[in-house]
Specification:
This protein folds into two domains: 2-37 and 431-471; 59-97 and 120-205 and 235-422, no CATH class. It is of the alpha+beta class and 472 residues long. Helix 1 (2-41) packs antiparallel against helix 9. Mean pLDDT is 87; it is low at 440-445. Helix content is 29%, strand content 28%. It has helices spanning 2-41, 49-55, 73-79, 140-148, 152-164, 175-180, 185-189, 364-367, 424-471; strands spanning 60-70, 83-95, 101-106, 111-117, 120-122, 134-138, 170-174, 182-183, 197-198, 208-215, 227-230, 263-268, 273-285, 288-294, 327-329, 339-342, 357-358, 370-373, 380-393, 409-421. It is elongated.
Length: 472
């Protein structure tokens, strides 16, 4: 009878040990199975989960605009006063709703090329007004003309057309005109073949970004979605040295199995440069654990603060020998137009840059850029890309509209917030297919190891107790 009981106890202990060992074995085996599945599904080729979402994003992407409405245009033009601005917005458009075009796989280089069509649809329900709302804004054509044509004689001729068209430093325009294009009265008088349509984003609709060529990850999953070439080139030809490199992905996704210590690199074609993001926090997004990566303040720092930025410094006069920080001169990729990019309200910028502007209030929470990336797959499930478009305006003696200016102005035009968040349906599917299965596997491992360990310890203690009773 004692032998039967002892045998049962030993059997129970053995079963417990086996369960614990099986739970331990399941950890590396389970991880291996997860890695194998993820590596298969994130490859950019027909039939994979990643490819389906990559061709046409399932996330609604919106671009919100806040326009800087100038409150004292006559004072500025006549007396070179501080520019008083008041931001108005958001005015919201749905963007990136069009599927990628001209998708071509190259099996030899393991790359896939494509065009990303541009389109914007106004969303009245997410806006404070209509596309017909009017604003007092910088006259883009007048502000740019003397910098594109610095010759004094040419400026005298340009001034005659500006005066004839009754154009001034500022103008009234509707939202639709200002963003997407309008016939400029001054340029329409010029008797030479010059573009007469002007707009901050003109042309946009019915255009495309690219051609991009990215690695599909079939031969090396650590390269998936990383850009090989943009418009047929590996560099941009805008910047000297390594600043000209096209680094990383387009930020829609990254190679899988992301660590917090990583620096995520991505290319932003609209500001003509590559950027990087660093880990900020762990976030729970609709039941999915994600890593929030932030655009650091060092991205637009001066070379004194961040020596890596020395090759982004172009304008010695404006940047005071590259000691000012917070703005990026992108005139080289905007047909020499004096366009400068910054974070909204000149967040993380030198105070001197905004010294001639009133009405700004930079705020880290509202004006910073972030990416929420699911670390196992590398998919960006939520993001907010925020930037401000500014224009440099200089005094010009031969241009009547600008002759009274006594200093340079970095005029904020507008700031935008491009956002996207995974939809509820997609989030549920993601939880079921990815995080749910991984959590279930992890739970199974813990239960097996815990139950096995408890069984082994309990039965062994009971066995030892029985043995000691028998020997007495």
């Amino acid at each position: 009878m004692g032998c039967d009981r002892n045998c049962r106890l030993i059997t129970g202990a053995v079963i417990g040990a086996v369960l614990a060992v099986f739970g331990g074995i399941l950890m590396p085996v389970g991880d291996m199975l997860i890695q194998k599945t993820i590596k298969k599904e994130v490859v950019l080729e027909e039939g994979t989960t990643a490819f389906k979402n990559w061709v046409k994003t399932g996330t609604e992407v919106y671009r919100q605009f806040w326009i800087f409405d100038v409150q004292n245009p006559e004072e500025v033009a006549a007396n070179s006063s501080k520019i008083k601005v008041k931001q108005r917005g958001p005015y919201t458009y749905r963007v990136r709703y069009l599927a990628k075009q001209n998708i071509t796989q190259d099996s030899e280089t393991h790359t896939v090329s494509f065009l990303q069509p541009n389109g914007a649809i106004f969303e009245p329900s997410l806006s404070v007004g209509t596309e017909n709302d009017t604003f007092t804004v910088l006259n883009l054509a007048v502000a740019v003309a003397p910098q594109l044509y610095p010759n004094a004689f040419v400026q005298i001729i340009i001034n005659s057309f500006i005066q004839k068209s009754k154009s001034s430093m500022f103008q009234k325009r509707t939202l639709k005109e200002f963003l997407w294009g309008y016939k400029d009265p001054f340029l329409s008088l010029v008797p030479y073949p010059v573009p007469t349509t002007v707009g901050v984003f003109y042309p946009y609709n019915n255009t495309a970004d690219g051609v991009y060529k990215v690695f599909n990850g079939k031969d090396d999953i650590s390269k998936v979605a990383i850009i090989d070439t943009y418009k047929g080139k590996k560099t941009l030809s805008y910047w000297p040295s390594y600043c000209d490199m096209i680094n990383g992905t387009d930020a829609a996704s990254f190679p899988p199995f992301i660590e917090k210590t990583q620096v995520l690199q991505f290319f932003a074609s609209d500001i003509c440069r590559s950027l990087h993001a660093v880990f900020g926090a762990e976030i729970n997004l609709k039941g999915i654990p994600v890593y929030r990566f932030l655009l650091p303040s060092r991205a637009f720092a001066s070379p004194l603060q961040n020596p890596d930025n020395y090759c982004f410094c172009t304008e010695k006069i404006i940047s005071k020998n590259c000691t000012l920080y917070g703005v990026l001169d992108i005139s080289k990729c905007k047909e020499r137009k004096p366009v400068y990019i910054s974070l909204p309200h000149f967040l993380h910028a030198s105070p001197e840059i905004a010294e001639h502007i009133e009405g700004l209030s930079p705020n880290e929470e509202e004006h910073s850029t972030y990416l929420d990336v699911e670390p196992i797959t590398g998919f960006t499930l939520q993001f907010a890309k925020r930037m401000q478009i500014n224009m440099l305006v200089k005094p010009a003696r031969k241009i009547g509209a600008l002759k009274n200016l006594k200093q340079n102005y970095m005029v904020p035009i507008l700031w935008l917030n491009e956002t996207g968040t995974i939809g509820d349906e997609k989030a549920e599917m993601f939880r079921n297919q990815v995080t749910g299965k991984i959590n279930l596997l992890g739970l199974a491992e813990i239960i097996l190891m815990s139950v096995g360990a408890v069984m082994f310890i309990t039965f062994m203690i009971s066995y030892c107790a029985c043995r000691s009773k028998t020997t007495k």
